[in-house]
Specification:
Blueprint (H helix, E strand, L loop, with lengths): L1 H18 L3 H7 L7 E5 L4 H5 L8 H7 L4 E5 L10 H14 L2 E6 L11 H21 L3 E5 L10 H23 L4 E5 L8 H11 L4 E4 L6 E3 L6 E2 L2 H8 L6 E3 L2 E3 L5 E3 L2 H10 L5 E4 L7 H19 L6
Parallel strand pairs: 1-2, 1-12, 2-3, 3-4, 4-5, 5-6, 9-12
Antiparallel strand pairs: 7-8, 10-11
Helix pairs in contact: 1-2, 6-7, 7-8, 8-9, 10-11
Length: 317
Amino acid sequence: MHNRRDFIKKTGLATAFFGLGLGSEAFALSPKASLYKISLAEWSVNKLLFSKKMDHLDFPMLAKKHGIHAVEYVNQFFMDKAKDMSYLREMKSRAEGEGVTSVLIMCDREGQLGAADAAERMETVENHKKWVEAAKFLGCHAIRVNGYSSVEYSQDRKAFSESQKLVADGLRQLCEFADTMDIGVTIENHGGFSSNGKWLSGVMKAADHPRAGTLPDFGNFQISPNDGNPISYDSYKGVKELMPYAQGVSVKTTVWDGKGNQSPLDYEKMMRIVLKADYHSWCGIEYGEAGREWESIVEVREQLEATEAALQGSFSV
C-alpha cells in the first residue's frame, strides 16, 4: 500500500508536469530535497560571548551572515532572562527578522535530573520548566538537558542501572510537563554515564515517553578524563545507538574510539549512520576554533554541505 501511494503520487506529479507542457526537462531542473538541515549551536562562539566580544542577541544575525539559517541557544548566555518576556520578545523578533529558525535551548546549571533524593529531582524538574516555556515562546521544538546523576561514574553494574533509573524518573517527570507545551526534552551525551551509548539508550527505554529523546554529540564520548588516561566510548557506535531516539544532532570535528583516543571526524561515515536512522532534521555545528571561530564554523558548514552532496545518490528524503 505504501509503494502504491508513492507510485500514485509520483505519476500524478508527472501527469501535472506533462499536462503543462513542461516535459522531462522540469524533472531535470527540480532541486533535490536536503538530506539534513544545518544549524549552529551557540556554544561554538562561547569564548566570544563570555569575553563580551559578541552579544547574545546578535547570534541569529551573525549565524545568517555566515550561511546558517537556524540556531541552537545556550541558556548560560541569557540565564536570568527565561521569564523576561521583553527580552524573549526581542530574541524572537531578531531571529524572525533574519528569517532564522530557533531550534532548541541547551540547558545547563539547573540541577541533577537524576538526583538520588526525590525532592531534589523534583526541584531540578521545576528549574527546567521555565526553559520549556521559553522554548515554546521562541518557536523551538525542544530543550536539551543533562543526564547527570548523584551516582558517581564507575564500571559497577549496580551504579550503571541505578543511575539509569534515577535519570529516567526525572526525565519522565519533565517530559510530562513539556508534553503540555508540545516541546521535546533531549539528553546529550555529556560526560559520565551519559557518554556511554548503551547507558543513554537504556534511559530512553526506561523513561518511555514520546517527548524524551537524545541529542547525539559526535565528539562528547569521553566518559572520564581519568587523570590523563581518558575512558571513552566509540563515537560511531554511540551515535548509532542513540540515533533511534534523536531529536537533534551535534556536529564536532573529532571523535573517540573505545580506548581513550581521539581522531578527526570521518564526515561521510558518521552522516551515513545518521541518515540510515532515517533522520533528516537539524545537525547543529558545535565547533569554533579559538581566535577564528566564524572561519572554522564556515569550514564545517562547507564540509557538511559537501558530504550531503556526496551522499545524495545513496539516500532520499
